[in-house]
């Protein structure tokens, strides 16, 4: 099973508007970060997209993604959903809508904000058929597990995808580690973890919290994501322990 990291940056990306690179070296290509989104791909070639970042169109072009088989959303914050319209092109060659999955509150908010995506309008086809996340355990050959996570005053969803004896865990946008997260992500072959910056943050994991999650889940390997402009790729890479690495846009890894 393969991870494709479409985007690895925080809500403003790196650099921020105004060409603000912060502490990131602008000459290092892996410091240029679009908003977070991933694809997990099975040995059979089935692809699940997690989140529809505002940069989705360019992410799909950069990674030569022409088809997905389902889409999952972690939560409804803008940097995770506002590229939803770019799913239209991925719907064109399908006989029906793309299957979509989200928690109850996230699904409600998405339907309200993007009603045309889920209902079709003015002769345009429905793009996504939303399904209850609570009922999914299998999707396109992937076993799926999930749990909710604290994200400051909001909630986000962590996912675990398994296929062909391998597992990938995805936990972005969390502000505390819970027992349910440890249960869901325990022993994954590859963990993708939120890691905004080194200093604690009220709604996101900081470096020490991300390292703690990796240790307590006993993940075989961990990739850090949702990195802000203070997290220079080379500097971070050189200080991380074995088995943990910074993510970057376009990263592909086998679980």
TrEMBL record:
Family annotation (InterPro entries): Metallo-B-lactamas (IPR001279), RibonucZ/Hydroxyglut_hydro (IPR036866)
Record-linked SMART domains: Lactamase_B
Molecular function per GO: phosphoribosyl 1,2-cyclic phosphate phosphodiesterase activity
Keyword terms: Hydrolase
E.C. code: 3.1.4.55
Occurrences of domain Metallo-beta-lactamase (ranges): 34-226
Protein's UniProt keywords contain Repeat: no
Keyword Hydrolase (UniProt): yes
PANTHER family: HYDROLASE C777.06C-RELATED, HYDROLASE C777.06C-RELATED-RELATED
Protein name according to UniProt: Phosphoribosyl 1,2-cyclic phosphate phosphodiesterase
Provenance organism: Alteripontixanthobacter maritimus
